[in-house]
Design goal:
- This protein has a domain of 78 residues.
- It has 5 helices and no strands.
- The chain is elongated, with a radius of gyration of 20 Å.
- It binds heme C (HEC).
- The site of heme C has 21 residues, from helix 4.
Length: 119
Amino acid sequence: MFLIHLTTVIAFFTFFFLVGCSTKPPYAETKLTWEEDIRPIFEASCIECHGGSMIRKNLSLKDPDQIRKNIWKIYKVVIVNQKMPPKNDMGIFLSEADRIKINQWIRGNAPGIGTGKPY
Ligand code: HEC
């Protein structure tokens, strides 16, 4: 009896939770754009090794198509494990503020590049 009651309560809340979710936009809102906010950061902190004098891992971050294709890989190495840019390498540096901007931009569907996938 108690179990049936509990199932009903869970179903009830799940229903309203799903209804609530479906009315929200799939992406976090952001005003950051590729051209104005993110490109200068990539130019300062990434391009030297990915599209400038070197193209490490064959990844050019000058090319919007490659960025779009690799957006979740970029998310992983910049935001999740913070392997990029490599520490103590060529004096290239990414500030915490810029890392946060990249995070918000990707989670906001990377305006100006577009991931086509909900976060
Ligand atoms: C000093 C050179 C250097 C800089 C600067 C740099 N990278 Fe890298 N990047 C590398 C190297 C070297 C690798 C390969 C590392 C490995 O395989 O462990 C790599 C790997 C990657 C990968 C993984 C590619 C794959 O196919 O596995 C991504 C994504 C990436 N970098 C993004 C970035 C981003 C975004 C920035 C700027 C925030 C950046 N990198 C800055 C040298 C650099």
